């Protein structure tokens, strides 16, 4: 299956690297064939496009990755957010049943207008709202010819979309890591948030549950004047924590005479679980799901680092006002 069947048309000759949205249909068609390692998927698309060695090596402006890899990854990310592809494990991708249904309609193109018809993608956009509160437009390797938002708004939206993709990758890595790493992650996060003082005295009785979770006590301040009881459950997405788990944790806190507790999961909480936590009486119980966990990791720089800093400069009106008064 070559260029003429996977892409819009034409012959298999060297060409300009397509935009990420143009690559969404080729990516979806390829993932219908089998489960692909992303590295092999990128190489296959580069072959189908007959990219030259220079084109394959071309870097994005910020460096760190190639243009073709960046655009294939963004195509995959948007397809995944729309529920059209799935990642059975980190670095691999295959088509979903919803994706097969789309291919069965034999579309000429998959673009942002089409994927925005899927509730999953609408939910993704709602999590990447612009500063004005309006749903963010889709962003990627190129900007629309006549964007309705200002360049600064586009930068803000792009930053939020990048963070969303980053948090998605973070959660996948947390789920693949061994239990001991997860235990260390929880301690590192709480330390970064200002709890526990030093690693040596950060927590008591952490680890040892055997199911990928950690249970323990962490100091709320460096002097240990107050303590927070902690329980963490590393579950796959879709394995929702119910009210019984929350109620059992509340019972354990009451049994210890505790006043504060934090229950962390990599999955999510049911509405009944959230309700149980809100009616925990004098106890102060905080529930942190996978979405909030990765948001905190990004906010407090746990497991992430700054790849590039972009300075946005404006006119210094005060400087020019001073010249007018002289």
Description of the structure:
44% of the residues lie in helices and 10% in strands. It is built from 14 helices and 8 strands. The radius of gyration is 24 Å and the shape is globular.
Write the layout of secondary structure elements.
Elements: H1 3-6, H2 24-31, E1 36-37, H3 38-48, H4 53-57, H5 67-81, E2 85-86, E3 92-95, H6 97-104, H7 112-115, H8 119-126, H9 151-176, H10 179-192, E4 203-204, E5 214-219, E6 227-233, H11 243-255, E7 260-265, H12 271-278, E8 284-288, H13 290-299, H14 317-325
Parallel strand pairs: 6-7, 7-8
Antiparallel strand pairs: 1-3, 2-3, 4-5, 5-6
Mean pLDDT rating: 78
Q: Which structural category do the helix and sheet elements fall into?
A: alpha/beta
Shape: globular
Give the biggest beta sheet.
5 strands, mixed
Order of helices and strands: HHEHHHEEHHHHHEEEHEHEHH
How is the largest sheet built, in terms of strand order? 4-5-6-7-8
Tell me the distance between the termini. 73 Å
Strand content: 5-15%
Radius of gyration: 24 Å
List segments where confidence is low: pLDDT < 50 over at least 5 consecutive residues: 1-14, 130-149, 209-214
| Count of DSSP-assigned helices | 14
Count the E strands: 8
Relative helix content: 40-55%
């Amino acid at each position: 299956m070559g260029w003429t069947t996977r892409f819009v048309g034409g012959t298999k000759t060297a060409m300009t690297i397509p935009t990420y949205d143009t690559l969404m249909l080729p990516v979806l068609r390829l993932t219908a064939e089998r489960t692909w390692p992303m590295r092999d998927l990128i190489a296959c698309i580069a072959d189908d496009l007959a990219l030259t060695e220079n084109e394959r090596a071309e870097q994005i402006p910020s460096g760190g990755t190639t243009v073709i890899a960046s655009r294939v990854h963004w195509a995959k990310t948007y397809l995944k957010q729309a529920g059209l592809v799935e990642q059975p494990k980190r670095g691999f991708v295959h088509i979903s049943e919803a994706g097969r249904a789309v291919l069965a309609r034999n579309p000429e193109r998959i673009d942002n207008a089409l994927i925005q018809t899927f509730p999953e993608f609408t939910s993704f956009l709602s999590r990447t709202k612009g500063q004005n509160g309006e749903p963010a437009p889709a962003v990627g390797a190129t900007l629309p010819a006549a964007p309705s938002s200002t360049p600064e708004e586009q930068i803000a939206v792009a930053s939020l979309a990048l963070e969303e993709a980053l948090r998605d990758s973070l959660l996948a890595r947390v789920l693949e890591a061994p239990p001991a790493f997860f235990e260390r992650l929880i301690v590192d996060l709480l330390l970064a948030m200002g709890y526990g003082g030093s690693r040596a005295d950060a927590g008591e009785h952490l680890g040892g549950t055997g199911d990928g979770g950690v249970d323990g006590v962490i100091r709320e301040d460096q002097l240990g004047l107050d303590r927070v009881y902690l329980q963490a459950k590393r579950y796959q997405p879709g394995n929702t924590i119910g009210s019984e788990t929350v109620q059992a944790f509340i019972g354990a806190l009451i049994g210890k005479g505790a006043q504060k507790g934090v229950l962390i999961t990599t999955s999510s909480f049911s509405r009944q679980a959230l309700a149980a936590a809100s009616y925990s009486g004098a106890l102060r119980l905080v529930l942190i799901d996978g979405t909030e966990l990765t948001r905190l990791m990004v906010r407090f720089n746990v497991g992430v680092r700054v790849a590039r800093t972009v300075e946005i400069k404006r006119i210094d009106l005060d400087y020019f006002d001073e010249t007018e008064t002289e």
